[in-house]
Structure formats: C-alpha cells, structure tokens
Amino acid sequence: MTFLVLANFKSHKLEGEVLNWLKTVSPALKNNSSLKLLVAPALLHLPAAHAYLSTHPTNVELVAQDASPFPPGAYTGAINAQQLKEYGVSYSLVGHSERRKYFHENHQDVANKVKELLSNGITPAICLSRDDIVPQFAALSDDLQNDCLYCFEPPADIGGTTTAPLDLIRDTVDMIKKYTSAKVLYGGSVTPENVASLLELPIDGVLVATASLEASSLTAIISTCSHAR
Ligand code: PGA
Q1: In this predicted model, what pLDDT tens digit does every residue of 98-146 receive, in sequence order?
Q2: What element of type H or E holds 87?
Q3: Calpha distance 34→1 (Å, rounded)
Q4: How far is the CA of 227 from the centre of ligand 1 (A)?
Q5: Residues contacting residue 143 through CB under 8 Å, at least 6 positions apart
Q6: Enzyme catalytic residues
Q7: C-alpha distances in angstroms, 208 versus 3, 66, 106, 134?
C-alpha cells in the first residue's frame, strides 16, 4: 500500500520558495512507488505549483489547505472545489485544528466541505482531534466516509518536536478505523528524528508541517519512510 507524506506549509513561504522547494524535493520521489508526496502550499501558490508539476511529472500531488463549503456563487472570498480542481488539486485538508480554532469551523461546516470536494473529484483529508471523532463522523454522510482520508492530529502535540504517545496514536487510529476503511494519517510534531518510531504503528501516512518547511528535513523524512516500507 502506498504510504503518504503530506507536507502542510500553513501560512508560510512566498511563491519562489514553494517552487524551489518542489525542485529540491521532487528528485527524492523519482522511481519511488511505495510512497506518495502530497503538498499543501498556500491556496495562492497552487497555480504556480501546478504549472511546475505539469512540466516535471513525479509522484507529487497538490493539496489545498481549505475549500469553500459552498458551490460557485455569491460567497465573497471563498475558493470553491471546482476552482481548486482547475489547478490540479487532488486533495484538500478540511477541519484542521487551526481552522476549527481560529476560524470557528464546526463539524457541519467540515461535512459541507467534504460534500463539495467529493462532488468535484477532490479527496478530503479530514483532520481530527480525538474529541472530534464521534461528532465529526455523525455529521458526515455514511456513503461519503470511505471516500476521504483522515488525519489524527492532537492539537496539543502540533508545532513541537515530540509526537503524541505511540499508544494514544494507536488507540485513536483504531477508533477512526471502526468508522471507515479509508487511510488514516498521523500528524503533530513529526520530525526526521522521530518518524521511524511512528512507522511501527498501523498508519497510512504522516502529516508534517514545521519539519516540512526545510526541503532537507522533509527529504530526510521521505527517505526514512521509503526505507521502512
Ligand atoms: P507540525 O504541524 O508538524 O508543525 O506539528 C502539523 C499540522 O498542524 O498539520
């Protein structure tokens, strides 16, 4: 099964920095069929990243960091799923803990985004704290649950250098897998130093933000993951 490494740049980097990063990291993915890199630059940088990847094919796919819960229409400031699709977006994060905390997104908003994304052929990557699991699955239509990716991200373990305890990750991934047969990733303080320990867990990938910003550090994570799989 393909292991996923999802790099989330959050609100970091200018366009040239995104392109340099892609240039540096892409060679690590060549001839690597056991691993796929998913990259989530700022929405504004998706067209340039798409143009770069169209002329430098490799197993890197583009991820939006967010999507509108609405279809095209009078929703000032919103970027809808159809617009994301035009720029080669294959996945979109939804319900990241920072969106839930700072932008007050609730479980129903996340479910609405999921519906919009799937109807435009984009796979939602739903971020969940342990407490989100029950209410988030309750808000999602049963028939859509297997068509998403899930990322267990404990908010208290984001942005540091130590992951959540491995037992807690294992237990929470099991909880999520009771609802769905979809892939489940872990995110929160994943670094080149600790990623090997995570590979013993029944996870299908890792979501990396801080340690993805430096190309060399993400390349080290990719290398560890591909050797272990
Ligand atoms: P981190 O963030 O890798 O900096 O802990 C993960 C995330 O918030 O997606």
Answers
A1: 999 999 999 999 999 999 999 999 999 999 999 999 999 999 999 999 9
A2: none
A3: 7
A4: 23
A5: none
A6: 96, 153
A7: 13, 16, 23, 24
Single pTM value for the model: 0.96
Query: Per-residue pLDDT tens for 13-32?
Result: 999 999 999 999 998 887 78
Cα dihedral across residues 213, 219, 221, 226: positive or negative: positive
Cα–Cα dist 20/36, whole Å: 19
- Within 8 A by CB and 6+ apart from 17, the residues are none
DSSP, collapsed to helix, strand or coil, labels residue 195 as: helix
Which residues share a beta bridge with 206? 5, 186
One-letter amino acid at 130 equals R
Residue nearest to atom 8 of ligand 1 (CA): 158
Give CA separation, 147 vs 25, 84, 162, 187, in Å.
Answer: 28, 18, 30, 20
Which tokens sit at 228? Answer: 């272990």
Mutate to test the pocket of ligand 1, among 169, 189, 213, 214 (most ligand atoms within 8 A of CB): 189
